[in-house]
């Protein structure tokens, strides 16, 4: 068996061409690996056949949708992960899963190298290569687009010369990455950050401005895991998929932002993540009801760092595991139901109920039954304010 | 001149009764102080006369709307202050301003004591008393509702006995605090956290679910200060007021949450803050365009602490001044314009332009003119991932 | 069985008097509970008898030294817990353990109330009462010294009137709290913060200024737990005790500081903690060798919060458990040996060896065998500095 | 005038050879720039002449000791900057100052490129290049040692061939960087991290183990700036220099640690920083006396980030300026005196006095004159513990 290269294969033009190109350049056999993370589109079997037709010595496809939902989207949900308080880490979550499959395929097929199709100015190259380094530090990585300055034009010419079974004309004006957790869109006219997105950009979400009837959903969680929708048992994957439909149908989860990439530049990004945003919204409100105050306050810092770390390609790092250990302990009591209205681009919690609630009606109420002992407040207020009072005596003196 | 007591006066039943009650209990003269922070409602002169009619020896009213907007709302905007990532600190911002006026009135009128009408289970007592302690540590504070277990029923009886010029029947089912930055509503049926709010609860915002035409606004900032709306010069107060109208007219800024009070309990709160939410949304996006990455990341921690601190009644504390110093330096380049669509309860940025932008088209574009040197990326990625790669070699070994 | 009160009993004057005084005041039976946390001094059996002689209906004593070392000192060591970067939380660690024993005794003896002898201006009242609230929220707490303004003079008079078997003249000029993790001393002349401590203040440590031979020790850790001293197996308790002797004999661990109490005032404190400081020093250096960089950086924030939280009496809080979960995951590889010189008041690491080391000689060396690929550095440096370079172009422009 | 290159010149072998080598390789004129940051050693004029003798077309030397002390060491002192809680950032502080002089020299001499002699595996390359990028983003940087794999052996051969006026045999076994803030030493035998340092390694500090008389010093600060030693006015530079002598004479400030470099590896470092450690120790204790608690707590996070940022080469970044703004506001009241004993390797505060003190004897004392109102404590403790009590009721239930 010759030394092989495992290629992260999407079925599209660039990676289809890469199969043959890498084989020619390196003289080594190429194994194509495609992973279904809920991106939709073509059947995995079609993709597998195309890889072989394009010259792959083997082609492996994997339905990793449940693994993705449970092992990657769920930790993000429990961490309410929103990079820059906005972006639910769509691509940043799928890359480590793909890396895991690549590393396993490399072991299975005796490959010493993996290849990916990322450019040199994005975040995904970091996520791929740092991930490979952390899961399989002995593997080499090649990145033809980046390291050999490979352009789309070159790819098309290469494909036409060799009559590869790819429709090179089916070019979308958009550069898209999508999975069950969301969808990212880049395109030329949005690189002018004064331009607004047009409806054509969107695919997971309906136009929130169009009049339609509101939808109401009750999301049930157990220990921070979404387990029911309107009382029906669902898997994590089903919860996301069904809310992609229902929240997406109400135009929820559109994002348009300027974002700080790890490679040092700012970029303009448009995202859609209806299920992710609806679930995070419900989860945050259930945490408001069930987490103790100081734990909740520190968790926000943990959440911010979690989002930065995963965005920055450090999923497989010791810190992510430690942050997850923190988050896991906070989720023990995040059990209960959140009722939300889905409408007009907004997921709005309107009710919450939980046997684990820390909201105590008898302490909170201003009506009869009030058990809160107001006589304690004066001493509390006095000592709470004592440090700033002492400082004030000095500063005003 | 006898020793006087300065009372924070709202014009409502409780503080109207308090005037006479405090006078009777303490044998001292009561000076009523009312501050207009944009709460709307009655004319200040009407309020002033009522205070005198209820027995105040003097009554001072102040239009502090511009002072509130510039000295309190603006720092909150620059800090993107959202307690628990949601609540824009409506009451928490007005209390320190009122305290400032109370302390000044105490000096002016030779009073040694101030009084407020807060209960013993809310946050506002803390904000009043810690504020007084920090601004005028020599003043005493009395809180009849809390310290003398004073109830509404007692107040009504007291008012009727003495024929005070107050309509004791005009009782709202809602407990409301409002100012130009927003409006807070509590009421009995919302103390059951499974109940959703009804339309009757809201006053600053129209129903977002009703069909209407979208509004589009361009907010211009200079150094983090909103200075224009659609190109027209505005003061900070005008910016908030006009966006209260326009964003409120589109149903923007409604909040319904369970919140952690400083006194140790969770409470259910409904807020409306159309102008605040629209301005913070625009400001955040302009920061995305104009702040350097590491500065922006640390600023999020500063913002969280700022919100907690002000919520917790520590406006007049050394830490708030230090956090503000941090924030101020970040705002130097937050200059430019954000175009937003206001519609259906959402304020959505669709365009940004700034002479201070750090978004560099030539580094970001994937089209012609790309100046980003992709050959630098490999080294970056390798060294960025080196710590987790070294750890992986150990951990997998 | 009448309703009983469980009293945290130390054997000293105040709590001896409290037994009878509480019984008289409340008409209830008092159960005395004394816990050995390594404070030394009298035999537990002597203390037990004194409690009975003073009127306790029952007296329970517990040797909790191993429990204290493993359940309280060890988490503090793994968190490198130093409040205000100095104080290793001596009393703050023993209080929750004592609370645990009190709560268990209350259950065992059918008591509905616990009592402690703390004053109203220290931290320990918080640790006792918040701890009781968290472990046994149904129990009441009474604090005679604080709530009944009980003074030492009153206690002496009370003891003499009733001829209690206590030597009321054996009064130390020092107020001392000590356990195996360290010793805290307060005294009148140190309340003038310009006065330095005198040798008489110290008991756990020899004078570091006296000439003596250095000592060298090798501390071995497994997963963050000290397990050997100079190659000899030790329990956590033995590690602390032996280092109290050896490091104490070299004058290590003396601390003299002004500290921020939770009740809002600053106080002057003198501490001795030879074993704690020696162990934390060794542990920190072993972490330097075995923790990945980003994990270590965030752990510092966790450590700070851990120290504040435990100082502030929140040992039994959800956040402490979550912080511990974070810390636990970081300790998995903190295995190896640190060689330290103990001398002249300093514990100085001079060598470290670990099979779990992330220090890689071949990457670090400047001599032959260097495997670090310096060609990667240029790209790294360029992209690392890109955000500040882009900002500079704007700011200088 | 031909296009010139400005070289950071130390006077040593490597950069002396670099002058001619760069000239030959690039065909451009080399301007040598040497900056005195208190590293001692040769006279600046000797260094200047050597640069010219080695072929520099111009040689500029600058005594930047006061600028370094006031502009770089002082902010570090006010931030109590200790990377990894240990290292006072000796080299990390001098690099940005040198960069500033290089950039100014490049402007003055019409150079479009700067050059430095750093290797590709250290932190200093980052500090140089990111600094240049931030101060003069138009300048190019060359790094012969890194980019042309230049070795010491090559340098010696090159120097001998051309008979450069350098003593190539005067080779120290140590790689040293020093300035007035401290001294860093690396050497082959210390790359084995089990080996302890030998006395020969040290130059700024006497052996702390040798018996000698203690020294006592009173350091006076005004607004966080050291202004007196034992009552004598000093400049910042003088304060550091005199304490380098006095604390160094007592063996204070030796550090031996394994450290996380920005380029992803761990390295073994030995430092001496007697003046820095003595000043930071005094400054921290004065802050304990004069900073309000919450401000002090958050400042620790700011300090940690400050240290990381400057260590990581981001001195000239927007975040450093914002962190400094925070720190500056905290220093307003850091005025007063700290008395320290210097002895046996330890700087130990024994007394503090300050007109700005927040330590209030009458609140702190347990003797007569106690003004602390203990009756306030019960309410405080109850509400402080309420969140964990409510959580406990749920969790134990």
UniProtKB/TrEMBL annotation, chains A, B, C, D:
Gene Ontology cellular component terms for the protein in this record: cytoplasm
Entry's EC annotation: 6.3.4.5
Keyword Calcium tagged: no
Keyword line: Amino-acid biosynthesis, Arginine biosynthesis, ATP-binding, Cytoplasm, Ligase, Nucleotide-binding
Entries under InterPro entries matching the protein: Arginosuc_syn_C, Arginosuc_syn_N, Arginosuc_synth, Arginosuc_synth_CS, Arginosuc_synth_type_1_subfam, AS_cat/multimer_dom_body, Rossmann-like_a/b/a_fold
Annotated Arginosuccinate synthase C-terminal domain residues: 174-390
Binding site for ATP: 8-16, 117
Keyword match Nucleotide-binding: yes
Main subcellular location: cytoplasm
Location(s), subcellular: Cytoplasm
Entry binding sites for L-citrulline: 87, 123, 127, 175, 259, 271
Pfam families: Arginosuc_syn_C, Arginosuc_synth
Segments traversing the membrane: none
GO molecular function terms noted in the UniProt entry: argininosuccinate synthase activity; ATP binding
Binding site residues for L-aspartate: 119, 123-124
Catalysed reactions, semicolon-separated: L-citrulline + L-aspartate + ATP = 2-(N(omega)-L-arginino)succinate + AMP + diphosphate + H(+)
Stretches assigned to the Arginosuccinate synthase-like N-terminal domain: 4-165
This protein's pathway: Amino-acid biosynthesis; L-arginine biosynthesis; L-arginine from L-ornithine and carbamoyl phosphate: step 2/3
Top-level taxon of the source organism: Bacteria
Annotated GO biological process: argininosuccinate metabolic process; L-arginine biosynthetic process; urea cycle
Family: Belongs to the argininosuccinate synthase family. Type 1 subfamily.
Subunit structure and binding partners: Homotetramer.
Protein name: Argininosuccinate synthase
Species name: Actinomycetospora succinea
Gene: argG
């Amino acid at each position: 068996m010759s030394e092989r290269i495992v290629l992260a294969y999407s079925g599209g033009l660039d990676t289809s061409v890469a199969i043959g190109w890498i084989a020619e350049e390196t003289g080594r056999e190429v194994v194509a690996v495609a992973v279904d993370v809920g991106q939709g589109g073509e059947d995995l079997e079609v993709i597998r056949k195309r890889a072989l037709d394009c010259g792959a010595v083997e082609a492996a496809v994997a339905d990793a949708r449940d693994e993705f939902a449970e092992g990657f989207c769920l930790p993000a949900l429990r961490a309410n992960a929103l990079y820059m308080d906005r972006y639910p880490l769509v691509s940043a979550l799928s890359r480590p899963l793909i890396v895991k499959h690549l590393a396993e395929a490399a072991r299975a097929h005796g490959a010493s190298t993996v290849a990916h199709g990322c450019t040199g100015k994005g975040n995904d190259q970091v996520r791929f290569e740092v991930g490979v380094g952390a899961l399989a530090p002995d593997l080499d990585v090649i990145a033809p687009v980046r390291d050999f300055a490979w352009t789309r034009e070159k790819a098309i010419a290469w494909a036409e010369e060799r009559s590869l079974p790819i429709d090179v004309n089916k070019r979308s004006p958009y550069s898209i990455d999508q999975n069950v957790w969301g969808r990212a869109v880049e395109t030329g006219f949005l690189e002018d950050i004064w331009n607004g997105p047009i409806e054509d950009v969107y695919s997971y979400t309906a136009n929130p401005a169009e009049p339609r009837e509101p939808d109401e959903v009750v999301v049930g969680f157990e220990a921070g895991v979404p387990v029911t929708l309107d009382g029906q048992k669902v898997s994590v994957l089903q919860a996301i998929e069904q809310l992609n439909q229902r929240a997406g149908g109400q135009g929820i989860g559109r994002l348009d932002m300027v974002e700080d990439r790890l490679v040092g530049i700012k970029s303009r990004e448009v995202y859609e993540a209806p299920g992710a945003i609806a679930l995070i919204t419900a989860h945050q409100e259930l945490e408001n009801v069930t987490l103790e105050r100081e734990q909740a306050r520190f968790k926000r810092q943990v959440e911010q760092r979690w989002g930065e770390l995963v965005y920055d390609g450090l999923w497989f790092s010791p810190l992510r595991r430690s942050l997850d250990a923190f988050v896991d302990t906070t989720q023990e009591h995040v059990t209960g139901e959140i009722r939300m209205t889905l409408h007009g681009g907004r997921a709005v919690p309107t009710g919450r109920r939980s046997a684990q609630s820390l909201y105590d009606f008898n302490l909170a109420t201003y009506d009869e039954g009030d058990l809160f002992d107001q006589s304690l407040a004066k001493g509390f207020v006095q000592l709470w304010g004592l440090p700033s009072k002492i400082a004030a005596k000095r500063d005003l003196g």
